[in-house]
């Protein structure tokens, strides 16, 4: 390469000299100025040749570098080709390995998935089995409950169907038969507060006050807002207080009775008992026993408003009027009592209390013969196993006798009292004999 450059430079030099000779005119005498100019041209030519040589050398060097780069590029290309092929083969191997790893991982994941799926299926089947078992147990319990409820409903229905029978027996003064019927109903439905109340009420009328209290308390335990049971319980405590001697304990018992009666009447002022009498009458009787005559009058007046066709409140009001020394008002009231009681016995021939009021009013009015007829009915309807009704009548007639001024002013009353007391003794004897 250097030789070629050198030859090229020589050719260029000779060409430039020849060209100069052709263009130079014929020689003329050379003066000093021309000689200096020629030297100047020579120096410039030399410098040009030196620069050309330097340029040629640089070109040669550049061409060498180019050749080297070309060779390097070729070698690099070859190397790159080899590397590319190598990398291609390596990439193929890596790809194959990666595919293998992916296949293995997918196989492992599939196995894991299959295992998990099998576990989930087994768990699901187990849970389904447990749920089915639980459902079967629940169904069995439900069926048992339904069957129990059906039997309970049947028993409750039968128990309720016995209540009218017990009520009829009570109206017929068959207290023992009524109690037995209510006991049978209670055996069928022991949590029925109405049955407990009915049985307790029958026990009150037969003077079995402790048994009455027990059943009435049970009725209130089942239904705390059962106002009939509250009023009846107040009446029981009043009856218990009646038997107690005068003192603080009796006062406490009567206060307890008053609280139950007032609570029931505040909630239901028109409340009546199983004899269709207002519970205000029982409260009035309590006040009368405690000497609270004004409160007693008020209570009986309220009873008269609730049961205006009943002789019971008017009979007690008549007695209270006499205690106020109002004989005329008493007699007027007893006339009304007689009229009402006569209507009651005609409407209900087995109404003992109506006959008792009829007897009392006729004795108050001096109608002895008519009173004798009423006494026969009283004895016929009096309970064979309880003397409470007769004892209550003795108390009423004794108060009437005192209100009328005693035996001197009303001598016809005492014989009736004596006959009733005799009947009470006979009842006690019969009860003891039957026991």
Descriptive terms for the model:
single chain, 435 residues, mainly alpha, Serine Threonine Protein Phosphatase 5, Tetratricopeptide repeat, 15 helices, 83% helix, 0% strand, elongated, disordered N terminus
Q: Tell me the β content.
A: under 5%
The average pLDDT value, as a whole number, equals 82
Task: Could you tell me the CATH topology label of the domain at 311-435.
Answer: Serine Threonine Protein Phosphatase 5, Tetratricopeptide repeat
Label the CATH architecture of the domain at 311-435. Answer: Alpha Horseshoe
**CATH C-level of the domain at 311-435:** Mainly Alpha
Total number of beta strands: 0
Structure overview:
The chain has 435 residues and is an all-alpha fold. Among the domains are: 153-205; 225-308, Alpha Horseshoe (Serine Threonine Protein Phosphatase 5, Tetratricopeptide repeat); 311-435, Alpha Horseshoe (Serine Threonine Protein Phosphatase 5, Tetratricopeptide repeat), CATH 1.25.40. 83% of the residues lie in helices and 0% in strands. The protein is built from 15 helices and no strands. The chain has helices spanning 2-23, 32-171, 175-188, 193-205, 209-222, 227-242, 248-267, 280-289, 293-306, 311-323, 327-347, 352-364, 368-381, 388-403, 413-434. The longest helix is centred in the first third of the chain and has 140 residues, at 32-171. The chain starts with a helix and ends with a helix. 27% of the residues are buried.
